[in-house]
Write a structure and sequence with these properties.
This protein is mainly α and about 450 residues long. The chain has 18 helices and three strands. Helix content is about 65%, strand content about 5%. It has a three-stranded antiparallel sheet with strand order 1-3-2, covered by helices on one side. A hairpin with a 2-residue loop joins strand 2 and strand 3.
């Protein structure tokens, strides 16, 4: 196992080198390093986020952004330090994917190698944004849930949510999963632990500067629809159909759109996100008390995960309820990216663990969908980003294809959950027959 981890980390390091020195992976003409560096310099000099320095992220993003500045806040020093800092986070993500695959009966080696190719799939944006840190916290929280430490797991998910909001979606799925297993006490205690963590962190931010912390919330509420988001594509379609003009605006450090139907469209997408997360919660709450019984011919249903392949988990090794938790939780985070009014290119990093774990479980179509979405993002950003802002048809078509692929990822994930539910029912029906044969 240690050898597999070292091989995966070597692959990751080689990919990281590509993002630093080899085109097209090294293309960083559009990145957030200047914004991070401008934040780190005053904070490391003793100024406080929200009170002295405007800050748009949750409070725990501050250390993730500022700490590399300890090595220097000059352009090159900060660039190198941030690359090393995010490499450490990427290594954690690789190892966590391996651990999650192992506890669910998947192939840890495949999971780690799939996660290790993230620089090849995404290019320089993996090291010029801090998103790997909340992803690592998300995976840590899910791993704790998988090893029967729900209170600690939900508390860590709260830490992740206060670093960048999307891990909060996994909290709802996790609570539903616990309730579905009959672990009511663990569910409410874990939820309280998560709320307590978030309340303490938010309270500290409010204590530093109530006005500044509230300004950070208003920043996101007032932010216009971002040009690469799914709602933006709808607004552009309405504009093309002559149903109102979609005006380009440059604000909130991004390029967005304003349209008479902006509020209605974003509200519809928000409602779709709520409905999708509710669907995931209902799905994981149903898939409980699964019976692993042999199927006709002596083969378990888990044979579809590749029991005839080298390194595949045996049918009895797969822990279905844990797989359901991970698929649903990670899919909820993908939905947050796809259905929100902002879909910055780095959001694709959130999807990578789902693809890596799907590869470990031999859900190859789901893996391919995640990989294609990441590759399409790299083709678009940053090389063609200005064409997207200029609304060039080919560039908009590329973004549309990427978003459709992300939507396909969600459909495939739900299909996996439904198939597992169907197989659960079949297993329950066959169990008495199998016992009788023994």
């Amino acid at each position: 196992m240690r050898r597999d981890a070292l091989v995966a980390l070597a692959v990751l390091l080689a990919g990281w080198a590509l993002t630093l020195w080899v085109a097209p992976w090294s293309d960083e003409r559009v990145n957030d390093l200047f914004v991070y560096r401008a934040f780190a310099k005053p904070v490391l000099s003793g100024e406080l986020p929200y009170r002295d320095v405007a800050f748009e992220y949750p409070p725990l993003a501050a250390p993730a952004i500022a700490l590399p500045g300890v090595a220097g806040t000059g352009e090159e020093a900060f660039r190198a330090a941030f690359a090393a800092w995010t490499l450490a986070a990427a290594a954690a993500v690789v190892l966590l994917c391996g651990a999650l695959a192992r506890v669910t009966g998947g192939d840890a080696r495949r999971a780690m190698l799939a996660a290790a190719v993230m620089p090849l799939l995404c290019g320089a944006l993996v090291r010029t944004h801090f998103d790997l840190f909340p992803v690592a916290l998300l995976l840590t929280g899910l791993l704790l849930l998988c090893v029967e430490r729900p209170r600690a797991g939900l508390a860590v998910l709260g830490v992740g949510a206060m670093t960048k909001g999307f891990p909060l979606l996994a909290v709802f799925v996790a609570v539903a999963w616990l309730l579905g297993r009959g672990l009511r006490r663990e569910a409410w205690q874990g939820a309280l632990a998560c709320i307590a963590v978030m309340a303490v962190v938010a309270g500290a931010a409010l204590a530093v500067s109530t006005g500044g912390a509230l300004d950070a919330l208003r920043y996101h509420v007032d932010r216009p629809v971002q040009i690469e988001s799914s709602p933006a594509l709808v607004l552009l379609g309405l504009d093309a159909a002559g149903l109102g003009e979609a005006q380009s605006v440059a604000s909130h450090r991004s390029d967005g759109l304003v349209h008479p139907a902006s509020a209605a469209v974003t509200s519809a997408f928000a409602a779709a996100l709520v409905a999708f997360v509710a669907l995931l919660c209902a799905s994981v709450a149903r898939t409980t008390n699964r019976i692993s019984a042999p199927c006709a011919g002596g083969l378990s249903e888990s044979s579809r995960y590749g029991d005839d392949s080298v390194g595949a988990p045996r049918a009895t090794e797969v822990e279905p309820r844990l797989v359901d938790l991970l698929v649903a939780s990670l899919s909820a985070c993908v939905a947050f990216a796809l259905l929100g009014k902002v879909l910055s290119p780095q959001f694709v990093i959130w999807t990578l663990p789902l693809g890596a774990l799907a590869f470990a479980w031999r859900m190859h179509t789901l893996t391919a969908a995640v990989a294609i979405a990441a590759l399409l993002t790299q083709v678009e950003f940053p090389a063609r980003y200005l064409d997207v802002v200029a609304r060039e048809p080919l560039a908009i078509g590329l973004v549309s294809l990427r978003n459709v692929t992300l939507a396909a990822t969600l459909v495939l994930a739900v299909r996996e959950l439904q198939l597992r539910r169907h197989e659960e029912l079949l297993d329950r029906r066959r169990a008495p027959v199998a016992v009788g044969l023994d």
